[in-house]
Write a structure and sequence with these properties.
Blueprint lengths: L4 H8 L3 E5 L29 H8 L6 E5 L9 H8 L5 E6 L5 H8 L7 E9 L6 H13 L4 E6 L5 H13 L4 E4 L24 H5 L1
């Protein structure tokens, strides 16, 4: 079921938790702020921390939970957390890279009631060569379950030609998008500093064409 603007605003006005679901990830982005991004085994226990569970158990009203990582859908603890607290009206939003085989994604989502999701922010990282058809497949899976979603593009100003082509295809498939140019010329790729100019309009035509 598509979330209305009113429902979305009400959800985001709840008490908010920003949580790292796991340190593991299926991509290797040089600009990722998660320092242990080379960790391949998603068996960390971030979502079963006793302090977090106590916070949920003692909540006086439902939380709006924003889950990142790593790749949050790789957390083996995710289904249990959502099965425990989704029925208590907590709602979960995800920052995912969308780089999943659709069957694998469906297997993960089959364990979770779609009503417990807020929305999915799907980050399409251009430099990681994730095929557009994979991103579209992820969106189609979410759409088939009534889960709200949009695609966010992560790249350099010089990637804008490819990004624009991809956005056109996504819009033809009725998929919402926006762009964040984290990796501009004033950034230190792989370091602690990312670009402070993150919108296409922050750059000149010459910078976009480089």
């Amino acid at each position: 079921m598509r979330m209305s603007k009113t429902e979305f605003i009400k959800m985001t006005r709840r008490p908010t938790l920003h949580l790292m679901a796991t340190m593991a990830c299926n991509l290797r982005c040089s600009y990722c702020p998660v320092k242990n991004w080379l960790l391949k085994d998603p068996t960390d226990e971030l979502l079963s921390d006793p302090n977090l569970i106590e916070l949920f158990d003692n909540a006086k009203e439902p939380y709006y939970i924003y889950l990142g990582g790593g790749e949050p859908l790789l957390s083996p603890e995710l289904p249990h957390l959502m099965q425990s607290y989704g029925p208590k009206r907590h709602r979960f939003t995800f920052d995912t890279n969308g780089a999943f085989n659709r069957k694998k994604l469906a297997k993960i989502l089959d364990q979770i009631d779609s009503e417990w999701f807020g929305y999915f922010d799907i980050s399409h990282h251009i430099d990681q060569k994730v095929p557009l058809k994979t991103i579209i497949g992820t969106c189609e899976e979410f759409r088939s379950r009534g889960i709200n979603h949009f695609v966010k593009y992560i790249g350099r100003p010089s990637d804008m030609t490819q990004i624009d082509e991809n956005i056109k295809t996504l819009e033809e498939n009725e998929i919402g998008t926006w762009v964040s140019l984290y990796m501009g010329p004033d950034s230190k790729i792989g370091g602690d500093i990312i670009s402070n100019r993150t919108l296409p309009g922050d750059y000149t035509d010459d910078e976009i064409k480089r």
